[in-house]
From TrEMBL:
InterPro entries attached to this UniProt entry: 6-PGluconate_DH-like_C_sf, 6PGD_dom2, 6PGDH_C, 6PGDH_Gnd/GntZ, 6PGDH_NADP-bd, NAD(P)-bd_dom_sf, Pgluconate_DH
Function: Catalyzes the oxidative decarboxylation of 6-phosphogluconate to ribulose 5-phosphate and CO(2), with concomitant reduction of NADP to NADPH.
SUBUNIT field: Homodimer.
Keyword annotations from UniProtKB, A to Z: Gluconate utilization, NADP, Oxidoreductase, Pentose shunt
EC number: 1.1.1.44
GO BP terms, alphabetized: D-gluconate metabolic process; pentose-phosphate shunt
Organism: Neohortaea acidophila
PANTHER family: 6-PHOSPHOGLUCONATE DEHYDROGENASE
Listed name of the protein: 6-phosphogluconate dehydrogenase, decarboxylating
Functional pathway: Carbohydrate degradation; pentose phosphate pathway; D-ribulose 5-phosphate from D-glucose 6-phosphate (oxidative stage): step 3/3
Domain of life: Eukaryota
């Protein structure tokens, strides 16, 4: 716990966009004075207007330059950043440098790349400035109400910032704050990046199910909304944030037009096309770089890339002179099929968590983050986008307690394996029916394949290995001679054809 002297009563919010604005108001509501700084006076004025509406105007003021901003703060000066990643953070860091000293604190609440975080932590160390990389999740609404917060850094800095962050973080149903130290260095931003990768896998699976229900089963949007609400109420998907908002999205009618809003949304995800977000791309790069199979996440990402380039899809469709239009699906027992669909989506969501955690675990080994898994599951209990009571709180958190030995892949945990096994027939049935009716199910089918290949010791890859050895002398292991431990190149080459 931080001592009385370190109690933080005033902060500077640098970056007053949708996240920074919400957080600034939230800090003020929790009794913390806030100095605002953003290149856009309009953005700061917008927050001041909201503060006035909420009776918080006495707690806020705007500052146009770093000198006056820093003069407005008591020591140690605490800066909360909510900025775009990359160069912006570097220029703010350099701009603040003349005015900050030993003991001052930067809490970087943007989606910064964890390597930038560690680079700045390295620069801060010599001057005694504390730099905490703190992923924030839940979107702009949670930023105002209470987000999930994922801080990483050295123990002393974390001890200084945690009492402040506990005041604003989302609260789990038992009242405990969804913020906890996740590890050293860039661990906070690393885990937030993977949170976003998991988010993509889950979001894709739910979207695929929505299309099966509407285009395959001919359900109306209101009926899909009711079905998603059922999923969100009970069973393995209960209190799954993305399912809950899915139900609301399906039902939402624009009062002005009387039309369902979702009916007006183009099928085009243009998130991170220009690289200004980062996390979606980085999480997939990390999976591959760390040799972790994460097909639910990566296929979700490829669907999103294909989706973004709608013009290209239009052109390809013209070249093909047709599209593989999803056909109707007529199960003999519609309720049973919907139950299979729920289980299939659950499998993909659980697989997304599993794959994401495995990436974090591999990075932990490589980068020595010293990941605190109980903290991670605590901060994913509420406020965040991947919140899912059964997956996070009931199934995974009890496995990775502070008393648990080192991290073990969830696929090796009997309780997780039992749930995957139980859902496998449902997932297979959904993928089969969807495939024969030309539905688009990349994340669901990738999850099915994942379960098959992760549990198999007789993959088609003997043939693959032989081909590699044939053309590239890449070597292979003979059956039964596979050495224990980390995978290493095989010892055998066969001269398949004389050179
Ligand atoms: N939106 C979301 O759902 C979530 C976003 N995040 C992350 O939080 C961060 C902020 O996101 P969000 O609020 O959505 O983005 P916004 O673009 O709404 O906000 C970013 C703000 O930073 C300001 N800014 C740019 N350069 C500077 C600078 N040199 N000094 C001070 N302020 C500057 C921008 O001003 P200007 O517009 O004038 O350039 C803008 O007001 C990002 O890292 C994002 O990835 C994290 C979780 C959820
Ligand atoms: O952090 C977030 C949610 O958790 C933000 O919404 C972010 O903009 C998502 O970006 P991406 O989809 O590229 O990961």
């Amino acid at each position: 716990m931080a001592s009385k002297e370190t109690e933080i009563k005033k902060i500077a919010m640098i970056g007053c966009g949708s996240m920074g604005g919400g957080m600034a108001l939230l800090f003020a509501e929790k009794g913390i004075d806030v100095s605002l700084q953003d290149p856009s006076t309009e953005a700061m004025d917008g927050i001041l207007t909201s503060a006035k509406k909420d009776g918080l105007e006495k707690r806020m003021a705007k500052y146009e330059d770093y000198k006056s901003l820093c003069e407005s703060l008591p020591n140690p000066k605490v800066f909360v950043w909510s900025l775009p990643h990359g160069g912006v953070g570097d220029s703010v860091f350099d701009g603040l440098r003349p005015f900050i000293t030993k003991g001052d604190v930067i809490i970087d609440c943007g989606n910064e790349n964890w390597q930038n975080t560690e680079r700045r932590q390295g620069k801060s160390v010599t001057t005694g400035i504390r730099y905490v990389g703190c992923g924030v999740s839940g979107g702009y609404q949670a930023a105002r109400r209470g987000p999930s917060m994922c801080p990483g850094g050295d123990d002393d800095s974390l001890n200084v910032v945690l009492p402040l962050l506990r005041k604003v973080a989302a609260k789990a149903p038992d009242g405990s704050p969804c913020v906890a130290p996740v590890g050293t260095g860039g661990a906070g931003h690393y885990c937030k990046m993977i949170h976003n990768g998991i988010e993509h896998g889950m979001m894709s699976a739910i979207s695929e199910a929505w299309a099966i229900m509407t285009k395959g089963l001919g359900m109306s949007l209101d009926e899909v909304g009711d079905e998603l609400q059922r999923w969100n109420q009970n069973g393995e998907l209960k209190n799954t944030f993305l399912v809950k908002i899915g139900a609301e999205i399906c039902r939402k009618v624009d009062e002005k037009t009387g039309q369902h809003v979702l009916d007006t949304v183009e099928d085009k995800v243009v998130q991170d096309w220009t690289g200004e977000e980062g996390t979606g791309v980085w999480s997939n790069i990390e999976a591959i770089d760390k040799h972790v199979p994460a097909p639910t996440l990566t296929t979700a990402h490829f669907l999103r890339i294909a989706s973004g380039d709608l013009h290209q899809r239009r052109d390809i469709r013209k070249t093909f002179e047709s599209e593989f239009t999803p056909k109707s699906i007529s199960p003999t027992d519609r309720r049973a099929f919907l139950e299979d669909l729920r289980c299939a989506v659950y499998s993909a969501c659980l697989a997304s968590y599993t794959q994401g955690l495995n990436i974090i675990a591999k990075a932990d080994k490589t980068h020595h983050f010293n990941i605190n898994y109980p903290s991670l599951f605590q901060l994913w209990r509420a406020g965040c986008i991947i919140q899912s009571d059964h997956i996070n709180d009931e199934l995974l958190a009890p496995i990775y307690t502070s008393n648990a030995p080192a991290y073990i892949n969830p696929m090796l945990q009997p309780s997780v394996a039992a749930e995957f096994k139980e859902c496998f027939p449902a997932l297979k049935n959904v993928v089969l029916r969807a495939t024969e009716s030309d539905h688009v199910v990349p994340s669901l089918s990738a999850t099915l394949e994942y379960l098959k290949y992760q549990t198999s010791t007789n993959l088609p890859t003997s043939f693959y290995e032989a081909e590699l050895d044939y053309f590239g002398k890449h070597m292979y292991d003979k059956k039964g001679e596979d050495p224990q431990g980390e995978p290493v190149t095989g010892r055998w080459h066969f001269e398949w054809k004389a050179a």
